[in-house]
Amino acid sequence: MILLPMADKMLRLDDFLPYRLSFTTALLSDSIAQIYEAMFDITIPEWRVIAWVAEKGSITQQQICVLTRMDKVTVSRAAIALTDRGLLVRRPNVEDRRSHLLALTAAGERLHAAIAPKALELESRIFSHFSAAEVDAFRKMLRRIDRIVLEGGDPAGRQGRENA
């Protein structure tokens, strides 16, 4: 793809890459959300909380906000719902008494163990249509975009919480 000078370009939303990323993300997320809801009675934000807690062992809600780009209210609601369902526990954070560490209960660990293989299967089903080199290049490109935006490449000067 050749990038034209701004004066020669006309915005076509369907070709605007930030929009395409947002659209595809929503498409994937909606599809996965239906599966997770039907199979595990869990929302995408709840799954993201469980996945990060499982990966880190224990983690604060603020750390989850940073890692997922979800807002504080969404993470808080997910954590409350998971705690109420007996999937998470809140433990004192000795490093910062203003926050708590989230950890999985035995039931939360079992749920993670059930969902994780399904998540990997869904990923494989989607990306099996691409070569390993294409998937690797795509993953690298996404991480590069993340770095560019986080290092100040965002022309609006924001940290990019809203979808384009």
In short:
With 164 residues, this protein is mainly alpha-helical. The protein has a domain at 39-120: Winged helix-like DNA-binding domain superfamily/Winged helix DNA-binding domain (Arc Repressor Mutant, subunit A), CATH 1.10.10. The protein has 6 helices and 2 strands.
* Cα gyration radius (Å): 19 Å
What order do the SSEs take from the amino end to the carboxyl end, as H and E? Answer: HHHHEEHH
Percent of residues in beta strands? 5-15%
How much helicity do the residues have?
Answer: 55-70%
What would the average pLDDT be, to the nearest integer? Answer: 90
Shape: globular
Structural class: mainly alpha
The CATH architecture of one domain is Orthogonal Bundle
CATH superfamily descriptor of one domain? Winged helix-like DNA-binding domain superfamily/Winged helix DNA-binding domain
| Distance between the first and last residues' Cα | 21 Å
Strand order of the largest sheet: 1-2
Uncertain segments are: 159-164
Structure commentary:
With 164 residues, the protein is mostly helical. It has a domain at 39-120: Winged helix-like DNA-binding domain superfamily/Winged helix DNA-binding domain (Arc Repressor Mutant, subunit A), CATH 1.10.10. The chain is built from six helices and two strands. It has helices spanning 17-40, 44-56, 61-68, 72-84, 106-127, 132-153, and strands spanning 88-92, 100-104. It has a two-stranded antiparallel sheet with strand order 1-2. A hairpin with a 7-residue loop joins strand 1 (88-92) and strand 2. The radius of gyration is 19 Å and the shape is globular.
